[in-house]
Amino acid sequence: MRSFLGIAGLAASLAVVVPHAMAQQGQTFDIVLVGGRVMDPESGMDAVRNVGIIAGRIAAISAQPLSGHTMVPVAGLVVAPGFIDLHAHGQDSVSSRFQAHDGVTTALELEGGTANVSSFYDVRTGRAIVNYGSTVSHGGARYRILTDTTPEGPASVYGAASADAMRRMGALIRSGLDEGALGIGFGIQYVPGARREEILSMFEIAAEHDVTNFVHTRGFGRVEPGGSVEAVQELIANAAVTGASVHMVHVGSSSLGEVPLVLDMIAGAQRQGIDISTEVYPYTAGSTNIRAALFDPGWRDRTGGDYDDIEWVATGERLTEETFHRFRAQGGPIIVHIIPQDMVDYAVAHPLVMIASDGVPYIGGRAHPRGAGTYARVLGRYVREQSAIPLMEALRKMSLMPARRLERAVPQMRNKGRLRVGADADITVFDPDRVIDRATYAEPAQYSEGIVHVLVNGTFVVRDEQLIDGVFPGVGIRRPLAPVQ
């Protein structure tokens, strides 16, 4: 079993990154970051070094002076691997600006995924500020196959798939994987008509292709059946039966008050050889569309929430029973304040848990603040203000762990999430004394503070805390394409 505890990998030789360089002595580098506190979660390096970059790669990490065409003094700042967000629904240029200001260099759409993998990559080529990528969407395949209606509503949401429908869904999933999708994305709670047999069959496809399933679980809360424990048991059982790997998204919002138990289950499954991992965003509210099936009748009993826990994103107002039903008929984004603070804190500090934003696109400047502030929030609040986790541990959760989650199936990720000679120059430089999130529920369109420089593949996208206009160094993160028959 691959470990996601970050202990494996510390054996990587420090000699690789201490004063060696790819270039000859006296080489002039494209960029040199001078005198920063270089922190690499893979090797454990934490030392003042100079970082030389050539052609988008890290070419030297040295205690000795380096010469470069562009010399950038970073004394007193932390030089870290760029943050990798495994759960970024905002795949547009506006979202990318907020992500870059938050230190993100790779933002991936892995939970929802896309129904058209080739198109997803084609439309972003040469236009991306940060690196991008996607899974193939189970929900998208379901929508394309199940087009009629049920008494409850659309068959793609509430309908049960026949054996033939599952076969055709599987063909669409396989096609997306052949086009380079990073895995299979599931929102099981959003499609309650999907029987366990259907989800199991998709895990079998993931196992055939040796990719990970990124899953929003079937249910949450303490009400059983249909609660958090049962939902996680489904993931563990499917992984055990098929041999597929699985990543449970947003353990905080999917587990609510059951976070410690769910994480104990995940840890136990790992000890038994199950390849399972998870993530959390550092906020006490989730966000979705008010029309989602999880708000079907009985939602208050299942979640323990009530109407006034729901915030209508467009206006910021809290809902009543009357406005809930009116807005549900209309449809639109909401923020749901139902995650206990102590459960969020527990998950953020837990060694098994990665950080991922679940950021959603901004509409008219309005959205959940997690799309703008997740990473600076961890660094500012959990590391500096609360001393809840050490800085190196936070960096591991935000860079190395996400890279390792993908790198077996996605060779590109072997050169991301770490600072070493030969790795991609995806680098975030921040001020540990100032870094903080500024986005709030009331004012979500606020850039994080203290993220001083961000480089994507060796190109500055943020310099001196200002976004660089007109540069698009982001590349598609993609599995190798299947050979043409």
Task: Please give a structural write-up.
- The protein has 485 residues and is of the alpha/beta class.
- Helix content is 30%, strand content 23%.
- It contains 14 helices and 22 strands.
- The protein has helices spanning 93-101, 117-122, 138-145, 155-158, 163-178, 196-209, 228-242, 251-255, 259-271, 299-303, 321-330, 341-349, 370-385, 391-407, and strands spanning 28-39, 46-54, 57-62, 67-73, 78-81, 83-85, 104-114, 131-137, 149-150, 153-154, 183-187, 212-216, 245-248, 276-280, 286-289, 310-312, 333-336, 353-355, 427-430, 451-456, 459-463, 466-467.
- The strands form four sheets. Strands 1, 2, 3, 4, 5, 19, 20, 21 and 22 form a nine-stranded mixed beta sheet that branches. It has an eight-stranded parallel beta sheet with strand order 6-7-8-11-12-13-14-18, sandwiched between helices.
- Helix 3 (138-145) packs across helix 5 and helix 6 (196-209) crosses helix 7 (228-242).
- The longest helix is centred in the last third of the chain and has 17 residues, at 391-407.
- It is globular and about 75 Å long.
- It starts with 27 loop residues before the first strand and ends in an 18-residue tail after the last strand.
- 52% of the residues are buried.
- Mean pLDDT is 93; it is low at 1-24.
